[in-house]
């Protein structure tokens, strides 16, 4: 049963923070019991305590999601152990976790790959189409594109998790 979902990106100030916010909102909208799920995010190169980028905060607020109080968290052994499912934004993030936390290899997926292929098996997919590009340093409009991409894929992820939890 999947209870704790961890989203991982580089700094935990854009993609993973946005994914966490979007996913939590989806759980509420679908009236899923909040106590059934623990949604976390972290970064492989996060500076603990950093706030999300102003662009990420703005784009999320446009969707009635408040991530302004989010604080960046560094990926560490404790958070990886807690997670039942780890969804990363790029192969670099997947490689980082696989190398440092070998015990977690069977629960790490590229977010888009998991959403679109949806098999509960971890692979090394080198297809760049499964990566979600980092919006850091880009205009707000690019953040909107990333947020849309996250939302579309997270809807599929949530469907799969709910289905898997019924088994």
What does this entry look like structurally?
A 4-stranded parallel β-sheet has the order 2-1-3-4, sandwiched between helices. The longest helix is centred in the C-terminal third of the chain and has 27 residues, at 140-166. The chain is globular. Helix 2 packs across helix 6 (140-166). The chain is built from 6 helices and 4 strands. The chain is of the alpha/beta class.
Please name the defining characteristics of this protein.
167 residues; alpha/beta; 11% strand; globular
Shape: globular
**Biggest sheet statistics:** 4 strands, parallel
Spatial strand order of the main sheet: 2-1-3-4
Low-confidence stretches: none
Report the radius of gyration as a whole number of Å: 14 Å
What's the total count of β strands? Answer: 4
Note the run of SSEs as H and E: EHEHHEHEHH
What is the residue-mean pLDDT, rounded to a whole number?
A: 91
Set down the secondary structure blueprint.
Elements: E1 4-9, H1 15-29, E2 38-43, H2 54-61, H3 77-82, E3 85-88, H4 91-100, E4 108-110, H5 111-116, H6 140-166
Parallel strand pairs: 1-2, 1-3, 3-4
Would you summarize the structure shown here?
The chain contains six helices and four strands; from the N terminus they run βαβααβαβαα.
């Amino acid at each position: 049963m999947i209870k704790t979902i961890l989203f991982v990106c580089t700094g935990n100030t854009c993609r993973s923070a946005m994914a966490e916010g979007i996913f939590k909102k989806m759980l509420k909208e679908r009236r899923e019991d909040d106590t059934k799920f623990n949604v976390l995010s972290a970064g492989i190169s996060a500076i603990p305590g950093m706030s999300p980028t102003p662009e990420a905060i703005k784009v999320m607020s446009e969707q009635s999601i408040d991530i302004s109080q989010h604080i960046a968290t560094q990926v560490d052994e404790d958070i990886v152990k807690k997670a039942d499912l780890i969804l990363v934004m790029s192969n670099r993030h997947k490689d980082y976790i696989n190398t440092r936390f070998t015990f977690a290899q069977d629960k790490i997926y590229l977010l888009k790959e998991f959403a679109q292929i949806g098999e509960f098996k971890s692979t090394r997919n080198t297809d760049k189409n499964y990566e979600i590009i980092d919006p850091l340093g880009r205009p707000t409009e690019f953040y909107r594109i990333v947020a849309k991409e996250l939302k579309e894929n997270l809807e599929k992820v949530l469907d799969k998790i709910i289905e898997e939890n019924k088994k």
